Amino acid sequence: MVRAAVLPAVGAPLEIAEIDLPDPGPGQVRVRLAAAGVCHSDLSLSDGTMRVPVPAVLGHEGAGMVVAVGEGVADFLPGAAVVLNWAPSCGSCHACSLGEVWLCANALNGAADVYARRASDGRDLHPGLNVAAFAEETVVPANCVLPLPEGIPLTDAALLGCAVLTGYGAVHHAARVRTGETVAVYGVGGVGLAALQAARIAGASRIVAVDVSPAKEELARGAGATDYVVASDTTAREIRALTAKQGVDVAVECVGRAATIRTAWDSTRRGGRTTVVGIGGKDQQVTFNALELFHWGRTLAGCVYGNSDPARDLPVLAEHVRAGRLDLGALVTERIGLEGIPAAFENMLAGKGGRALVVF
Q1: Which residue among 103, 257, 314, 339 has its CA within the 20 to 30 Å range from the CA of 75?
Q2: pTM for this model (two decimals)
Q3: Computed from CA positions of residues 235, 237, 240, 246, in that sequence, does the dihedral angle turn out positive or negative?
Q4: What is the pLDDT of residues 339-359, one digit of tens each?
């Protein structure tokens, strides 16, 4: 048995419980977690903004060591260091055939599976976003793990599984930031901090971080921000003032609120690009009039998982880490145990801190 943070029902508090985890079956691997990041998507799953079968063990950003493999698994051996891949591509759907593996139609099919049982009552448990990282150990299909490149600390490597792939990918794949361009990043959480570092790596000439909390300025500047704006009704105007009244070339929205998306759009120059990374609820309605769409000529685009291909991008990110261009530890503002996850959710809602990391 292993300890895990269980979501018994949508909207219910997480419960730390022992679960019965089976041995890996054919095509599966068992992983002992070293760390798991607490992502805003986990909060969205717990409150029903995003739907998964419950009861479930949440957590999708993790890294650890393989401790056992099932029949037919040849690519991984016990002792291998791995990063969890919560959105494995099937390789055969329409999106995958186009090379857009981040839009795979079957990526989350595993979330409906029963992967373990609660020890106290035998109740079936589902694996959240496929990988159930809020547990000491997990059992996943082999395509839900990626080999961790050499030279990357195993604990910090958990952040590669979502925050960094998403933030880096939003800048490099979705927005395609070019050297010398100006960038605004809305939301200085884990993904936002990764996006700030990615903008610096891309060679952006000015990087404006925007957040509701004045306390995050030092964190943002440490990640690469050249300017910091505390979010208000005048945010777009302030950003235009910083960019010769033009607006930024690229705005990356990492919050998922209608008002923030609208402000990000308003702060982008004529002909600029606004990339929406944040996951908002169905009640978050963003409106534009037809004339402004024509006049401004801006591009507004969604972004799923940073438009990343984890198998392709993980080695690239690892090289940035080894070269000192990407600092994984700088994203982490709190290291906690399983019991600290509810408080980490509360901090997210209050706009506090960067990434909380569960360390096992």
Answers
A1: 103
A2: 0.96
A3: positive
A4: 999 999 999 999 899 999 999
